[in-house]
Amino acid sequence: MLNQAFTSESLSSKVNAERFNVVHLATHGTFSSRAEETYILAADGPINVVQLDGLLRDRSQSETQAIELLILSACQTAEGDDRAALGLAGVAVKAGARSTLASLWQADDQATALVMGDFYQQITEGKLTKAEALRQSQLKLLRSESRYYPGLWAPFILVGNWL
Questions:
Q1: What pTM, to 2 d.p., does this model score?
Q2: Mind giving me the DSSP string for 35-93?
């Protein structure tokens, strides 16, 4: 779902109707210890942490329908505070996503696209764990001639099941 098609209703409908192993959300997100200030942004407004939790819990009720990997690739979706560690990524794992890949700070769009593209290729081949695929993708960018500064592609952290 892109741009105006990415609404809270369309996300809920798709996630609960389809059997996706991976859900990737490349949208703005903010975390706070206050639930009303914790959200991901959809075209029709914020999807707060309570709504996201409910969406993922509904999905995880069935073992065959649990989300294996939720990717939150924009903003500080893994950033927490003194009262709650690991931000939206932690909320997602607690609500039933088996693993969440999220960012500790805002990542560069071009560098993120390169890391995510390579990451998907490696996990699709099935020879590496998610943690090792992320590591290898980041190392590939580090060694590339594009010379992306590590601060642009290094914010990603894997929470939950690393295998």
A1: 0.82
A2: GGG-EEEETTEEEEHHHHHHHHHHHHTSGGG--SEEEE-SSSTT---SSSTTHHHHHHH
